Amino acid sequence: MSQIISDNILATTYLLLWVVTFILYHYKCRKLDGGSAIIATYIMYAVFSLLTLNDVMFNMLYEPLELLPYLLLYGMLIIALSPAIYSHIHPASIIETPHTRVLNAIALLIIACSVLILPYIIENFSSGFVKLFTEADAGKDAYEDLEKEAAEAGSGISNIPAIVFNAFSDLTVFLCFYMLTLKKKNLWLILGLVFSIIISVMVPIIQGARGNVVAAVFTVIVGYMMFKQFIEKKLNRAIQVVGASFLIATALPVTAITVSRFENMGGGIAGFLNWYVGQASIYFNNYAFDTGGTRNGDRILNLLKRTIDPETPKNYVERRDKYHNLNIDDNLFTTFVGDFIIDFGLFLSIAIFVLFNLYVIYQIRPRDGTLRLHQVLLLYFCLCICMQGGMTLFPYSDSANLRVVVIFSLYAYLRYHEKLLEKYPLEDKKT
Predict the structure, then answer these.
(1) Which end of the chain is more exposed for a tag (fewer CB within 10 A), N or C?
(2) Distances (CA, A) of 409 to 157, 237, 313
């Protein structure tokens, strides 16, 4: 049997495994939710893996495939998806209102930061956005400028509104859809959060960073899919129409950036697209058992390590230079599972996945069909990891460690606030 046939059999088997998973996921509980969206994207990635494996130019980039790494990847992704699976099998019908004004305060902070970022978008709109559709090299040039700035990333604080805005980016989506589930909706806060979501997509488009655009869109999709069962039907239909328009509007500049970057390259646009979307599971297969060493948490725990060890690389340029002897690094995609293995090694990564997701499942158990908001937030965090990192790498690495800090700070506050209300109940429930 030739190598190309063997590789196709293994890659097709991996694809079919996810198709069967999608069917089994909906066999008894036939509703679409966040887990449905995530598994659907994994099927899509597997299809693109087959396409790039059969590309005459790009198949030379890959080593022969093996069965065991595919089984490892599937198993660890299922472990990461286990909170979504548990929530799917044990659905809640109500999200309990936490009775706190902190959520409104956070929403106002996010909106204020997005307004402060708006001048940057206005200033660069004609040169960064409009040129994507008028000049062939605009997307490529914007991306190259972003690459040049990467060597200075992490060396200091230069734009506080942007830092705060990015740190709260996932909470923007979470709060927006949560507020849409409330009976008494604050329309101005919701519109402000929608505006902030648009800003979070516009900035990376202007910078030519397709990955950040896709991550932002995926976060919106998984956020909506998680909350849609709690949103009234009429509003759901309106969100779907607006969402479809949002996806089309986002796809246009992303397509323009893709054409700009790859149109004149030897592999062609289709070849590079197949490689970009489909490479992660293949590179994981090639190198998961042979990474050539570990980064010792320098990527996934970057900010924490920098507070302990000043020699920790501040950005990916310094990190790739430090770990240049690794067989694979973050210059290629290996999914968020591969990113953990490169940082911590195989056995410690498995232990982290198992222990963390067991903790999450224990914490998100509904009580009489009701979920507390801190439980929903914890589930949302797990869904974001799976959705944002399925094609690329762990989405909360480097400076994005701040997003983890923000999410778990709010999680801790909501839990503490809930316990206070249980011990000292408020008669009017309005504080």
Answers:
(1) N
(2) 21, 33, 26
320 contacts 329 by C-beta, under 8 angstroms: yes
Residue 358 has a pLDDT of: 98
Which pLDDT value is given to residue 158? 67
Q: How far apart are CA 411 and CA 359, in angstroms?
A: 14
Q: Is the dihedral of CA 127, 128, 130, 136 positive or negative?
A: positive
Closest CA to 375 of 409, 414, 419: 414
Q: Are 89 and 420 in contact (CB under 8 A)?
A: no
Q: Which residues of the chain have pLDDT under 50?
A: 428-431
Q: Are strands 94-96 and 370-372 parallel, antiparallel or unpaired?
A: parallel
Angle (deg, nearest 10), helices 187-207 and 233-262: 10
pLDDT digits (tens, 9 = 90+) for 118-150: 998 998 877 666 666 666 565 556 666 666 666
Residue that the structure tokens 């190259």 belong to: 144
Per-residue confidence (pLDDT) for residue 53, from 0 to 100: 96
Q: Which amino acid is at 188?
A: W
Task: Measure the CA–CA gap between 145 and 35, rounded to whole angstroms.
Answer: 37
CA distance 404 to 212: 17
Contact 168, 106 (CB under 8 A): yes
Locate 418 and state its tokens. 């809930």
Beta strands in 266-377 (DSSP E): 370-372
- Among 318, 295, 356, CA closest to 152: 318
CB 316 within 8 A of CB 430: no
pLDDT value, residue 49: 97
- Looking at 120-275, which runs of residues are DSSP E strands? none
User: Residues 289, 291, 292, 298: what is their CA dihedral angle, to the nearest 10 degrees?
Assistant: -130
How many other C-beta atoms are found inside a 10 Å radius of the C-beta of residue 83?
A: 28
Record the pTM. Answer: 0.94
Q: Is 204 helix (H, G, I), strand (E, B) or coil?
A: helix
Q: C-alpha 341: how far from its chain's center?
A: 18
